[in-house]
Amino acid sequence: MDLAPNTTQQPAKFHLLHVPFSKTYLACAQQTFITGQVYFFFQLGKLANRSLSNLRHLKKKKVP
Q1: d(C-alpha 12, C-alpha 23), whole Å
Q2: pLDDT value for 60
Q3: Could you tell me the residue range of the domain that residue 40 belongs to?
Q4: Is 46 within the bounds of a domain?
């Protein structure tokens, strides 16, 4: 997805400076977003695992 379309209306200097920056910025943002998602799901999985083990522990306790 290109935010800056390749048009002749833009000055060449601006275009040359703008495109690498926007591409780099988008890549960084995407990487950060993906990392954040992975971290979030990792934490969620840890939490779910902990609660599941707690449930198993409680079930084991209840059984005489």
Answers
A1: 17
A2: 77
A3: 30-64
A4: yes
In a domain, 61, yes or no: yes
pLDDT at 15: 53
Quickly tell me which residue has 């609660």 as its tokens: 51
The encoded tokens of residue 3 equal: 């935010």
User: If you ran DSSP here, which 8-state letter would residue 60 be given?
Assistant: H
pTM of structure: 0.43
Is 2 within the bounds of a domain?
A: no
- Report how many domains make up the chain: 1
- What average pLDDT does this structure show over 30-53? 92
CA distance 35 to 46: 16
CA neighbor of 7 nearest in space, from 22, 19, 20: 19
**Rounded distance between C-alpha atoms, residue 57 and residue 48, angstroms:** 14
